[in-house]
């Protein structure tokens, strides 16, 4: 992400309770960057696949600070 930001490939978006971004790059660019990161041992992946556990939240509470 740091390199993408340095290269001006990350554009901030408006979000509620989060900080979304748009990554302005092609699939080929991203795959090349991931490959470079792996070769340089800068990018790691989990040892095994599995579900992601997202925290639960109350929508009313999440939107309370937005207005």
Beta content: 5-15%
Number of strand segments: 2
Q: What radius of gyration results from the CA coordinates? A: 16 Å
Round the mean pLDDT to the nearest integer and report it. 87
Tell me the major beta sheet: 2 strands, antiparallel
How many helical elements? Answer: 3
Class from secondary-structure proportions? alpha+beta
Number of discrete domains: 1
Outline the low-pLDDT stretches. none
Helicity range: 25-40%
Strand order of the largest sheet: 1-2
- Gross morphology: flat
Distance between the termini: 30 Å
Order of helices and strands: HEEHH
Key phrases:
single chain, alpha+beta, 67 residues, two-stranded antiparallel sheet
List the helices and strands and how they pair.
Blueprint: H1 2-6, E1 10-12, E2 21-23, H2 27-39, H3 59-64
Antiparallel strand pairs: 1-2
